[in-house]
C-alpha cells in the first residue's frame, strides 16, 4: 500500500468531512424528525448562531455557497440593481452567473489590490452610475469576500469604511464567507467584529470548505430584513426535506469551537508552507498569507511541470502565456505537516536546491 503523502493542495473542498460532522449526521439519522427545517436541530440553530454573533440573528441553512450568495443578494437587490464586488470575486468569476440569475441584478467588478475592495475604488465605481437615472442600473449592494480569493483578509476597520460608504448610498452589504472561519481564526477578531459590528447586513457562513459534508448558512443580522428569503430558498430547491442532516453539520461545527479549531489547523499548515517556501531560492510569495491559502511563483513553467511530475497537485492562477507561473495552494483542516514537508521537499528537488 502506498503511504506517500498526498501533496494535494488543489482546494480545501478536496478534503473529506470532519469525523465530528459525520458523527453528527449519524446521530441525526436516529429515529424520525419533522421535515423542512422544523426538526429540533434546525430550530436551535438561530439561538446558537445568535450566541456566536452576540446578537439575535436569523439563520437559513442551504446546501451550497453559490445558493447562499445568490439568495442573499436576491433578497436585497432588485432586478434593476447593481452589486459591486471585487473583479476576482467568486460570485463574479466562479458561480456561472447564479447571483445574476436569481436576482436579475448586475454584478459590477471593482479592481483592488490583494483581492480587496477599498472605499476609494468603490466610490470611483459608483461614479459611473447616476442615481435616479432610468438608463442606469441602480447601486443596491456591495459584496465582500472574507477571506478573499487571494487568501487575504479584511480588517474590521476596512469593512467598516466600505460599509459606511455603502449605507450612506442606501446600499446593503453582503459578505461571502466561504472561508469566514479561516478569516476569524487568522485575525483573532470575533465573528461579530468582522460582520455586523462593522456594518455587514447578511453573511454567507461557509462550512463545507471547513470540514462539513455539504452545509452553508445564510445569516441575517437584522431579522426584520430577512424578508422573502424563505420563499426564494424554496423556489431555488434549497429548502431540504430532511433539513436535519444539513443543520446537524452546522450544529456540530459550533460545538466546543470546532469550526475555529478546524480552520486554525488549515491556517497553521498554510503558514508552515509559506515559511518553507520563503526559504527556497527562486520562489516568491505573491500575497500575504492571512488564512489558509498560499500564492507563490516558480521561475518558469518547466519547473511547474517537474513539480507536477513529483505528484504535487495545485491550481495555476496565471495564464499559460505568463512566463512566471503563479501557483495557488490551499490547506484543509486535514492537511498534515508530513504533507506540507513532502511538498516543500518536492519544490527543492524541482529547483535543484
| Uncertain parts | none
Distance between the termini: 30 Å
Radius of gyration: 21 Å
Average pLDDT across residues? Answer: 96
Portion of residues in beta strands equals 15-25%
Number of helices: 13
Helix percent reads: 25-40%
For CATH, the homologous superfamily of the largest domain is named as: Type I PLP-dependent aspartate aminotransferase-like (Major domain)
Indicate the CATH class of the largest domain.
Answer: Alpha Beta
User: In the CATH scheme, what's the topology name of the largest domain?
Assistant: Aspartate Aminotransferase, domain 2
Describe the global form: globular
Strand order of the largest sheet: 1-7-6-5-4-2-3
E-strand count: 11
Structural class: alpha/beta
Structure description:
With 353 residues, this protein is of the alpha/beta class. Helices cover 39% and strands 15% of the residues. The strands form two sheets. A seven-stranded mixed β-sheet has the order 1-7-6-5-4-2-3, with helices on both faces. Helix 1 (19-28) crosses helix 10. The model has no long low-confidence stretch (mean pLDDT 96).
Amino acid at each position: 500500500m502506498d503511504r506517500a503523502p498526498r501533496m494535494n493542495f488543489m482546494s480545501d473542498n478536496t478534503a473529506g468531512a470532519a469525523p465530528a460532522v459525520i458523527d453528527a449526521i449519524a446521530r441525526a439519522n436516529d429515529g424520525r424528525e419533522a421535515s423542512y427545517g422544523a426538526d429540533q436541530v434546525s430550530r436551535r440553530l438561530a439561538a446558537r448562531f445568535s450566541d456566536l454573533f452576540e446578537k439575535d440573528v436569523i439563520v437559513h441553512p442551504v446546501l451550497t455557497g453559490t445558493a447562499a450568495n445568490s439568495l442573499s443578494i436576491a433578497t436585497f437587490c432588485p432586478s434593476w440593481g447593481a452589486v459591486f464586488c471585487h473583479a476576482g470575486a467568486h460570485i463574479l468569476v466562479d458561480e456561472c452567473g447564479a447571483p445574476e440569475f436569481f436576482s436579475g441584478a448586475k454584478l459590477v467588478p471593482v479592481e483592488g489590490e490583494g483581492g480587496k475592495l477599498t472605499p476609494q475604488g468603490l466610490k470611483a465605481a459608483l461614479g459611473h452610475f447616476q442615481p435616479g437615472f432610468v438608463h442606469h442600473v441602480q447601486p443596491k449592494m456591495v459584496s465582500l469576500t472574507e477571506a478573499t480569493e487571494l487568501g487575504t483578509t479584511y480588517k474590521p476597520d476596512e469593512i467598516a469604511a466600505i460599509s459606511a460608504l455603502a449605507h450612506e448610498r442606501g446600499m446593503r452589504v453582503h459578505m461571502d464567507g466561504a472561508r469566514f472561519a479561516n478569516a476569524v481564526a487568522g485575525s483573532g477578531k470575533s465573528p461579530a467584529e468582522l460582520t455586523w459590528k462593522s456594518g455587514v447586513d447578511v453573511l454567507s457562513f461557509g462550512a463545507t470548505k471547513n470540514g462539513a459534508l455539504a452545509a452553508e448558512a445564510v445569516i441575517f443580522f437584522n431579522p426584520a430584513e430577512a424578508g422573502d428569503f424563505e420563499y426564494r430558498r424554496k423556489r431555488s430547491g434549497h429548502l431540504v426535506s430532511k433539513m436535519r442532516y444539513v443543520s446537524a453539520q452546522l450544529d456540530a461545527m459550533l460545538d466546543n469551537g470546532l469550526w475555529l479549531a478546524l480552520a486554525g489547523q488549515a491556517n497553521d499548515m498554510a503558514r508552515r508552507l509559506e515559511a518553507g517556501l520563503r526559504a527556497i531560492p527562486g520562489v516568491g510569495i505573491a500575497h500575504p498569507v492571512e488564512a489558509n491559502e498560499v500564492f507563490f511563483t516558480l521561475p518558469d513553467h518547466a519547473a511547474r511541470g517537474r513539480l507536477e511530475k513529483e505528484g504535487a497537485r495545485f491550481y495555476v492562477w496565471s495564464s499559460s502565456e505568463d512566463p512566471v507561473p503563479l501557483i495557488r495552494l490551499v490547506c484543509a483542516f486535514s492537511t498534515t505537516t508530513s504533507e506540507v514537508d513532502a511538498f516543500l521537499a518536492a519544490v527543492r528537488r524541482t529547483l535543484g536546491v
